[in-house]
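Example record

One chain of 140 residues, shown exactly as stored in the release files.
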Amino acid sequence: MSDFELDSRLAHDSVLIVDGPLSQIRLMNDERFPWLVLVPRVAGITEWIELDGEQQDKLRTELNRASKALKGTDGVEKINIGALGNVVPQLHFHVVGRHAGDPAWPGPVWGSGQAHRHSDEVLAERVGYWKERLGYPSLS
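Predicted structure tokens for this chain:
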């Protein structure tokens, strides 16, 4: 995992919450949706099938944890999980909390208007909130 580099578009559009066993868990900087992104810290992969069985198990566990954290938040009625990779080929999974009446409902969040970025203060608060909800131990 030492050669891992985060795609610049993911770095620009999201902020690190915490490192899970395999992946960076990141928050999309878009206040319209509760939206997490999991990026396996494995260099050079673009597809799920490129992960070995142990890595797939770790990622599946991380996706479950992220989904449960999102499902437990106010207003979230549905969890959308996607790994498109058409624009950013680096393997990453979007985990998005949705509800009837959200700004993109019932369509996909991708391509639905412009992101509404959090202020720096709110973004820091949201990162802390998600770090607590996800419940990963601190590595310090």
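Notes: The CA atoms of residues 31 and 122 lie 9 Å apart.
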